[in-house]
Design goal:
It is a multi-pass membrane protein. By secondary structure, this protein is mainly α. The chain contains three helices and no strands.
């Protein structure tokens, strides 16, 4: 049973990484990378590294995602001539 959970988590990790690389919308790519980070935290929980998983969830999925979204929203797609 535990191998099925880990297999599912690793499958979601690989799929989210491939999807994030293929997206053209930056905001959708950031959301997909947040999913990747949260799933890697879940993998760490399944491996028994609770403290590392908590740090990954807070920093990787939380703070970095928010900073990336703010940076995308503050930038403009128009060029200044």
């Amino acid at each position: 049973m535990p191998w099925m959970i880990e297999f599912t988590l690793f499958t979601i990790l690989i799929v989210s990484a491939v999807v994030a690389l293929g997206l053209r919308n930056l905001l959708a790519a950031v959301v997909t990378l947040n999913i990747f980070s949260f799933m890697s935290a879940c993998v760490m929980v399944s491996l028994g590294a609770i403290d590392v998983a908590f740090t990954e969830a807070v920093v990787g999925a939380g703070a970095v995602g928010v900073f990336n979204i703010i940076a995308i929203l503050l930038t403009s797609r128009k060029s200044v001539d």
